[in-house]
């Protein structure tokens, strides 16, 4: 087996670089007052760098008195010194180098096609220079955003910002962020930011980016129609990215309404429809991960229910549920047959559950119990009242995939929240909303408030569909 003596080879090449009496190329790095000349050997440069192999051709380089001359004005002399040492010895020491120098080394190694060095420097910035990168997100992103090979660092920056955007959006550099980077960031669904804050950031950035606004004209009271029109032009591609229904009515009035002239009419009207009518917004909120395998409701409505479980009874888009819930399908009538006995065979003993029912006209009813159902009575066939303060029932109307007139009723008499009687019922919310045989019944008992079921209500029907989900 051949022996390898790389250490002595590296040392000899380092001497060759430092005492380059036989050099045949002078490279001038830097520009203006920050210029330094380096002496090197073309054979080493060609062998170690595909870039130099092409660049040191007759078309790219000048030659005077048998000496090649080459200029790299876009590479800092400190960075180029590190590049040469790497090319000659395969060594690079970043321990005492500033973040700006290391970033420059990353860009230079990418340009010079030094793949091994590039990967090492990129990983070093991510793993060892985390704090510096965080403090200089705008600089780093502007430097690497258009370099395809820097996608790992780009993703690191963007993911870090999305996870904790507050330091970034309050930094002095934020208003100078490149428009394409800001667009991509605002478009992301995992940006952990309240929508009212996202709107504030957009206005702040847009004013800075608009000629004749910003420091020159920062008092909106003095703006004329032309000022609003210019801001509108600046933000035209960004406005559709704002989830206006996720902004509270107070914030909408105070923060959004004053900028109505810059918002396209159809977007403004859609937002007003949400605030003034009982409709479910079409756009999902940010960091929206709530999924449900349902033929009755969509994930957006599942998000509404998640908020109800968290006792956030306002319109779902105005509240941020922690979305810790998973809705696991246990029973579907169209697949498992509609009758209470079959329902119980699949569902009895579930820890907590969500029931969805659709009647023949596609009106939806539902209920949530955090304590399961038909647990104690499964074997002794006795009727039992089971108490909880957290159960609720609801209803809404479904029309062309949209959900309107959502009504929520919470339990008012916790002692009579859930009625267990395995032999007679499937689910039973206080004898107010229950399944018996093939029918679903709604009748007022006073155990739930009267938002869904009033004293005049007495309904029973064979449902079009029933689904039950374990809530995990």
What's the SSE blueprint?
Blueprint: H1 6-18, E1 25-31, E2 34-40, H2 42-48, H3 50-55, E3 62-64, E4 67-72, H4 77-89, H5 99-111, H6 115-127, H7 130-135, H8 137-144, H9 151-163, H10 166-169, H11 179-187, H12 195-209, H13 225-235, H14 249-256, H15 265-276, H16 299-309, E5 327-332, H17 333-336, H18 340-347, E6 353-358, E7 363-369, E8 384-386, E9 392-399, E10 402-410, E11 418-420, E12 428-429, E13 433-436, E14 439-443, E15 458-461, E16 465-471
Parallel strand pairs: 1-4
Antiparallel strand pairs: 1-2, 3-4, 5-16, 6-7, 6-16, 7-9, 8-11, 9-10, 12-13, 13-14, 14-15
Helix pairs in contact: 1-4, 4-5, 5-6, 8-9
By oligomeric state, this entry counts as single chain
- Bin the strand percentage: 15-25%
Unreliable segments of 5+ consecutive residues: 316-322
Helix coverage percent = 25-40%
- Broad structural category: alpha+beta
Round the Cα radius of gyration to an integer and report it: 33 Å
Q: Kindly state the number of beta strands.
A: 16
Count, helices: 18
Q: Any idea what the shape is?
A: elongated
Largest sheet: 6 strands, antiparallel
Domain BTB: 23-96
Protein name: 2588_t:CDS:1
Pfam families: BTB (PF00651), TLD (PF07534)
Domain TLDc: 295-472
């Amino acid at each position: 087996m051949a022996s390898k003596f790389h250490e002595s080879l590296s040392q000899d090449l380092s001497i060759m670089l430092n005492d380059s009496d036989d050099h045949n190329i002078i490279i001038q790095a830097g520009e203006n007052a920050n210029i330094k000349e380096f002496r090197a050997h073309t054979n080493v440069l060609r062998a170690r760098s595909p870039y130099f192999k092409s660049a040191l051709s007759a078309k790219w380089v000048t030659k005077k008195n048998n000496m090649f001359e080459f200029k790299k004005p876009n590479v800092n002399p400190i960075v180029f010194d590190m590049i040469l040492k790497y090319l000659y010895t395969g060594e690079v020491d970043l321990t005492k180098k500033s973040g700006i120098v290391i970033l420059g080394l990353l860009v230079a190694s990418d340009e010079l096609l030094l793949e091994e060095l590039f990967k090492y420097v990129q990983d070093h910035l991510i793993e060892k220079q985390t704090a510096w990168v965080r403090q200089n997100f705008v600089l780093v992103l502007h430097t690497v955003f258009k370099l395809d090979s820097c996608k790992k660092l780009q993703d690191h920056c963007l993911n870090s910002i999305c996870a904790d955007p507050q330091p970034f959006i309050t930094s002095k550099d934020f208003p100078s962020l490149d428009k394409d980077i800001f667009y991509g960031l605002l478009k992301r669904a995992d940006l952990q930011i309240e929508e009212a804050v996202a709107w504030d950031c957009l206005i702040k950035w847009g004013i800075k980016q608009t000629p004749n606004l910003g420091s020159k004209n920062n008092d909106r009271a003095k703006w004329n129609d032309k000022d609003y029109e210019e801001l509108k032009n600046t933000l035209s591609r960004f406005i559709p990215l704002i989830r206006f229904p996720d902004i509270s009515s107070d914030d909408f009035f105070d923060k959004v309404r004053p900028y109505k002239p810059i918002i396209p009419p159809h977007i403004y009207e859609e937002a007003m429809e949400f605030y003034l009518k009982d409709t479910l917004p079409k756009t999902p909120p940010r960091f929206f991960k709530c999924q449900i395998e349902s033929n009755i409701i969509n994930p957006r409505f599942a998000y509404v229910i998640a908020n109800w479980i968290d006792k956030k009874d306002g319109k779902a888009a105005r509240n941020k549920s922690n979305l810790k819930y998973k809705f696991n399908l246990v029973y579907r009538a169209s697949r498992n047959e509609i009758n209470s006995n079959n329902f119980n065979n699949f569902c009895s003993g579930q820890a907590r559950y969500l029931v969805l029912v659709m009647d023949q006209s596609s009106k939806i009813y539902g209920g949530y119990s955090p304590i399961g159902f038909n647990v104690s009575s499964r074997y002794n066939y006795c009727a039992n009242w089971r108490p909880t303060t957290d159960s609720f029932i609801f209803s809404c109307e479904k029309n062309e995939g949209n959900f309107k007139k959502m009504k929520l009723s919470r339990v008012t008499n916790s002692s009579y929240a859930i009625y267990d009687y395995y032999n007679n019922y499937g689910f039973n919310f206080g004898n107010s909303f229950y399944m018996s045989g093939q029918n679903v019944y709604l009748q007022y008992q006073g155990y739930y408030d009267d938002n869904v079921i009033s004293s005049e209500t007495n309904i029973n029907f064979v449902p079009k569909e029933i689904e039950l989900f374990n809530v995990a």
